[in-house]
Design brief:
With 700 residues, the chain is of the alpha+beta class. It has 5 domains: 117 residues, Sandwich (Jelly Rolls); 96 residues, Immunoglobulins (Immunoglobulin-like); 231 residues, TIM Barrel (Alpha-Beta Barrel), CATH 3.20.20; 127 residues, Immunoglobulins (Immunoglobulin-like, Sandwich), CATH 2.60.40.10; 77 residues, no CATH class. Strands 19, 20, 21, 29, 30, 32, 34, 35, 37, 38 and 39 form an 11-stranded mixed sheet that branches. Strands 1, 2, 4, 7, 9 and 12 form a 6-stranded mixed sheet that branches. β16 and β17 form a beta hairpin. α8 packs across α9 and α8 crosses α10. The longest helix has 19 residues. It is globular.
């Protein structure tokens, strides 16, 4: 039986004119291009299909495309041998089952990247004659997926994927020695290609990617044209090779990569790492995780499984990766009121009470060591129906918790590459508000990776000031101390290096001086493009420069800004932004919990906060402290308050507005409005922003 489509569609179009809900297939379904019954390979369907869970498009790119929940395809076959199914899949976030004659034979790979995947169709599940292939959702969670090029091979999976071999060696260009790396393989259409390479002690394998712990891998692949990349995280350049390989061929390729981003004196760390072995979800075993950490160039790996402390050092030694990184035992305290990473811990450490129902109770159970780091994770994500920085409980611009909870953390994630925000600055603005409120929080970048290649370990990372010349012997206590003191940079593809007055960096307090000179360098590998760099003082953008040399490898921009601070302390933060160009070896994953169907990938890099001691009292004074002092001095005289605030920036005005409201002052009262009309521009702007944020909070 042959079902033909009367309208041949292009590869980029979506095929949706099918009744998917029942067993009946409409006549528009293109089931296969006619081959003889003895053909070894058949295209069952060359159309493009959009399948959807939910009533609304998940992303803007699917907005005008109808979709169905299920796909059915009829095809003729014989059951003399095991068959193999192949397809192109894209943007798969939930579980989708593959059924053959109503019997489950597999699931789509849960991965947002576009890849060519393969599945065994067992001989006993095949019928002589007509068979039915079904792909259907196994969950009700929203998901839009795209399927293309559904192909049937009349031979076992192992034969399909092992007809040719290419031997890869990855070496360091400077030393000519092999080193751990990620090998990525795509086909002629730039689609990730599944390999038939078998698991091994030094390899972690997923569709289109092979992590090697010793720089070597033999890729078993079908005949064809391919592009193979070698990479090692965002400090290194990329090498690639184009190959054409035929059945039975053995090819050898040597790829060399070199460090393009200078990070001497900065320890590359990922503060949020998981494994399937200990977290129970994701797909990375602890041995695979050791390989991926080394291959992505992470030097300090903080292992933060959920409510458990694991000894990852033993795994690092077993895999012989312990010379490439130092492992730090930690714990993701996973509560009903947020997730908090705590480190360093020991194997016999008491696990903090993860059943705490509020932040006060949680704080009582956290370790009290001077070097203990406590990071608030993904503050804008919802877990257990709780969002730490939900507008209904948190006024971000002022760093105010409306429930009067005190944040039990000394750091917070500003970039989580496994849970990106639609707005790249969202968590940074949250951080700025908290700094102005008086919370001296260190910014953190982390991957939150549970997977081998779906979410890259170390894609977002934190650079900590410290000796990194021996990655396997990093001083954990020193690193934790420097992290807690804010001596960090945060990177998601880019680095923002800052020196103030020739010697002060992130985490430092710069003594009062007539002029503040800020030297900035934006760095990144050649495959990441930088487009602009901005300087923030107390969270307010005061400098903004476009970068015309953003494609350069290593240093992409250098500049100097001269500033004057008279009587108010301020924290300075430099943030570089870049275009998000998702690459096969460095995919940028869509937001885990999107707030909008519009998604534009990005890269970003931030310095830690550098405090300017403009008032000369030898300590960093935040906007909240200034506002509190001014209100105390002015008493009930609102006109006096606004007059004295003219010498301060809008961050102080925001805090003053918050304080007045907290003491019962109605900011919309005629007396306040009249006084505000005569106030300076910075005071007006601060009160306006706080009022808008308060109104938004009330509306949630």
């Amino acid at each position: 039986m042959l079902y033909k489509n009367d309208f041949v569609k292009s590869e980029s179009s979506f095929h949706t004119g099918i009744n998917f809900t029942g067993l009946k297939l409409c006549s528009l379904l293109l089931v296969f291009i006619c081959f003889s019954s003895y053909a070894q390979t058949r295209i069952l369907d060359s159309s493009t299909y959009l399948l959807r869970i939910g009533d609304q498009p998940e992303w803007e790119e699917f907005a005008n495309t109808p979709a169905n929940r299920e796909l059915n395809i009829l095809f003729n076959a014989h059951n003399k041998t095991e068959h193999t199914l192949s397809l192109r899949q894209y943007d798969v976030k939930q579980t989708w089952n593959i059924l053959l004659n109503d019997h489950k034979v597999g699931i789509l790979v849960t991965d947002g990247n576009e890849m060519r995947t393969y599945y065994t169709l067992p001989r006993e599940a095949l019928k002589n004659g007509e068979n039915k292939l079904t792909i259907q959702a196994a969950t009700n969670n929203p998901d839009d997926i795209v399927l293309r090029e559904i192909t049937l091979y009349e031979r076992p999976l192992e034969k399909v994927l092992t007809e040719a071999t290419v031997h890869i060696e990855v070496t360091d260009r400077k030393t000519n020695k092999p080193l751990p790396a990620r090998i990525t393989i795509v086909d002629a259409k730039k689609i990730l290609q599944t390999t038939g390479t078998k698991p091994a002690d030094h390899l972690a394998i997923r569709p289109g990617s092979v992590y090697t712990g010793n720089g070597k891998a033999s890729l078993l692949i079908p005949p064809g044209n391919y592009l193979i990349y070698a990479s090692r995280g965002s400090e290194y350049g990329v090498d690639s090779a184009t190959i054409h390989i035929q059945a039975g061929q053995n090819l050898r390729k040597k790829l060399t990569i070199n460090r393009e981003v200078e990070t001497d004196g900065w320890i590359g760390s990922d503060t949020h790492i998981h494994t399937l072995t200990h977290s129970g979800h994701g797909d990375a075993s602890d041995r695979e995780r050791a390989l991926t950490i080394a291959a992505e160039g992470i030097e300090l790996a903080i292992i933060t499984e959920h409510n458990v402390v694991t000894n990852f050092e033993a795994v690092a030694k077993e895999t012989k990766m312990n010379t490439f990184f130092t492992t730090v035992p930690g714990d993701e305290v996973t509560t009903a009121v947020g997730h908090f990473n705590v480190f360093p811990l020991t194997g016999n450490a008491t696990i903090p009470n993860h059943r705490a129902k509020n932040w006060g109770t949680l704080a009582e159970n956290l370790p009290a060591s001077d070097n203990t780091v406590v990071i608030l994770n993904h503050g804008r994500d919802i877990h257990n129906d709780f969002r730490p920085f939900d507008p209904k409980r948190h006024i971000a611009i002022a760093g105010v918790n409306r429930e009067n909870w005190t944040l039990p953390a000394n750091a917070m994630e500003v970039i989580n590459s496994g849970a990106l925000q639609d707005d790249p600055m969202r968590l940074f603005h949250d951080w700025f508000g908290l700094l102005n409120r008086g919370f001296l929080l260190t910014p953190a970048g982390a991957s939150d990776s549970h997977d081998v290649s779906r979410y890259l370990v170390g894609q977002a990372r934190t650079y900590i000031r410290g000796r990194d010349n021996q990655p396997g012997k990093i001083d954990i206590e020193q690193a934790a101390r420097n992290f807690k003191e804010g001596k960090v940079m945060v990177s998601f593809g880019l680095l923002s290096k800052v020196i103030v007055n020739t010697k002060f960096g992130p985490g430092d307090l710069v003594p009062s001086s007539k002029e503040t000179i800020v030297d900035v360098e934006v760095a990144g590998p050649g495959w990441v493009k930088a487009k602009r760099v901005c300087l923030y003082a107390n969270g307010i953008k005061i400098r903004d420069e476009e970068i015309s040399t953003g494609n350069a490898a290593g240093t992409k921009w250098k500049g100097q800004w001269k500033l004057l601070f008279q009587k108010q302390d301020a924290f300075l933060v430099v943030i570089a932004e870049g275009d998000g160009n998702p690459l096969p070896f460095w995919p940028i994953v869509k937001p885990f919990q999107p707030v909008s169907p519009v998604w534009k990938p990005y890269t970003i890099g931030s310095s830690g906060a550098i405090w300017i001691d403009a008032d000369g009292d030898g300590k960093p004074t935040h906007a909240y402290a200034y506002a509190k002092k001014l209100i105390s001095s002015a008493g009930a005289n609102i006109n006096k308050l606004f007059k004295e605030m003219e010498a301060y920036d809008e961050a102080v005005a925001v805090q003053a507005a918050a304080l007045l409201q907290e003491t019962g002052v109605d900011l919309s009262a005629p007396l306040v409005v009249a006084a505000l009309s005569q106030a300076s521009a910075s005071v007006k702007e601060g009160f306006r922003k706080f009022s808008e944020a308060t109104q938004e909070s009330k509306e949630k």
